Amino acid sequence: MLEIRGGVGMSGLIRLDDTWALDHIDAEEIDGGMREAALQLQLLVDRKGAGSEYTGWLNLPIDAPDSVVARLEHAAADLREQSDTVVVCGIGGSYLGARAGLEFLAGVPSRSATDSLPDILFAGNSLSSWQLQKLLDRLAGHRFSVVVISKSGTTLETAVAFHILRTELVRRFGAGKARTRIVAITDSEHGTLHDLARDQGLVTFDLPRDVGGRYSVLTPVGLLPFAIAGLNIRAMLQGAAEQRTASLGSPAATNDALHYAVARRLLNTSGKNIELLTSFEPCLHFVGEWWKQLFGESEGKNGKGIFPASAEFTTDLHSLGQYVQEGTHSLFETVVDVPAPADVAFLCDADSPDGLAYLNGRSLSAMNHDARIATLLAHHDGGVPVLQLTVPDVSEGSFGAAVYFFEVACAVGGYMLGINPFDQPGVEAYKHNMFALLAKPGTEVEAADIRSRLARGN
Ligand code: PA5
């Protein structure tokens, strides 16, 4: 049983409101869809559906042993003590969840104001030499450490960046001290990173074999970076556990995760093949990036799936708004609402020359709220169905709940679509070509084939 410390309780569950999509889907269809979703949920929970060997994420919030959480907290404290900067090195499912949580929760009250928290930077998520050089320049003179995350250990972007960062650590601190500045999160039994970590005697955390990358936020993949940032990972798991109870245990009629899966499915069958996840709080930007991977990699196969896109309002209303309002009408919108944890008052003299006196006494949150309602109505009137999701607050518990909510909706939606939501065979195609072009041993045949295709131009 996990002991919750720090007094950060769960604030509630993720809620769906489909009122502004009901022009496009009708109540009878929703009822039928909910019955179907309940059957698919049962398949998921019984581990009888496609890819069931990768459904370990279902129990992560309730299975996390206190000893592992305590070890994570201890490793995080250790890294904090020796570092002013921690570089988290990973890509895809070994990157986006951690970044989503860190950006969503930056500045939450639970982070101790007295602790000196390290800056957390990211690497290994591209092959850009410019990006890596800027990171190395920024690390100069800093006491930095590295958390490397890779389940396979062979992902090129991560492996190359880690190699360069490890070399820099050894150059700066010596081989022995460099080892204490690296934590590896990888497969418990196999892989290049697993072997390297074992041979070098690095501190390691296991990435459970039955959890795929994009469902791994609530493993050490996300939890260690969150703990380093001073976040309450026990409260996060508690929030996810409460959402788990609601999402796996509620009757279909009151199960908002199933309802979301059904609404998406029905909108898709009505001809909407793009989902635009929007929000009016920039702290949700990387939640959108994580969500795109979760749904894109899970659903986009066998010629099926909704294309997941994201936008940040009101910023993108000034760029994408025109298309959403009057474009091809192939999209629906899911707006994620979360109350801002702080507000800024707007005070303005009656004769202010900028003409803003009418806003005197209003807060920025009130303006943002009105902008959200105005956008909802405008987009609805422009023929765009809008689903509304509410996250109760900016807290660790709510982040854990949101992760679990989307994971269940994605898995059930994938089963309704008739695909395996836990594999990603298509991701390998570019890797084959790239490794051949880079002359990785064993790829000579493909390399010759690619060269002749390039010469032919087809
Ligand atoms: O969801 C996935 O499986 C992928 O996005 C992987 O997480 C990503 O490719 C990184 O893989 P790895 O953790 O093996 O380096």
Automatic annotation (TrEMBL):
Signal sequence segment: none
Role description: Catalyzes the reversible isomerization of glucose-6-phosphate to fructose-6-phosphate.
Any single Gene Ontology cellular-component annotation: cytosol
Reaction catalysis annotation: alpha-D-glucose 6-phosphate = beta-D-fructose 6-phosphate
Subcellular location: Cytoplasm
The EC number(s) this enzyme carries: 5.3.1.9
Root EC class: isomerase
An annotated Gene Ontology molecular function: carbohydrate derivative binding
Keywords per UniProt: Cytoplasm, Gluconeogenesis, Glycolysis, Isomerase
Residue stretches in coiled coil: none
GO BP terms in the entry: gluconeogenesis; glucose 6-phosphate metabolic process; glycolytic process
Main localization category: cytoplasm
Pathway: Carbohydrate degradation; glycolysis; D-glyceraldehyde 3-phosphate and glycerone phosphate from D-glucose: step 2/4; Carbohydrate biosynthesis; gluconeogenesis
Protein name as annotated: Glucose-6-phosphate isomerase
Domain of life from the UniProt record: Bacteria
CDD domains per UniProt: SIS_PGI_1, SIS_PGI_2
Domain SIS: 75-272
Family classification: Belongs to the GPI family.
Active-site annotation: E297, H329, K431
